[in-house]
Amino acid sequence: MKLVNRSYLIVKPRQPYIDWVRSFDDSVEIDDLINQKTIYLVDEPAFDSPEEINNIIKKVCRDIFVSELEAWYIDKESFPKDMTYKAFKQWFDVEYVDLGFDLSDDELIAE
User: Fold this and answer.
1) How many domains does the chain have?
2) CA-based diameter of the chain, in Å?
């Protein structure tokens, strides 16, 4: 078991994201979207204060926003014009996890 020197953001879709995906493909089951989660590794904060965690989320929210949208549709013209932190919080729930361990014996590959 190896400690990984990252913190984690678990990103879950909210209704605006679900509505956006279904505007392109209404055959997608709502439950499948609701249960969809993505984990993003981020730098560890110096302190796990709510303010510092919020700053990390603000720093990466646009990259996550784009990644989540591109998971369903890559035409950037279809992306919402407002991808600010405020919009991000409307489209996604984020859970912060401060500690993670790699339980695999396989080499970790980063691309």
Assistant:
1) 1
2) 44
Q: Is residue 15 part of a domain?
A: yes
Domain of 62 in residue numbering reads as 2-100
CB 72 within 8 A of CB 21: yes
Nearest of 20, 42, 59 to residue 99 by alpha carbon: 42
* Sequence-distant (≥ 6) Cβ neighbours of residue 1 within 8 angstroms: 101, 102, 103
pTM reported for the whole predicted model: 0.90
Question: Is 105 among the domain residues?
Answer: no
**DSSP β-bridge partners for residue 92:** 13
Report residue 108's pLDDT band, with 50, 70 and 90 as the boundaries. confident
pLDDT at residue 42, rounded to an integer: 96
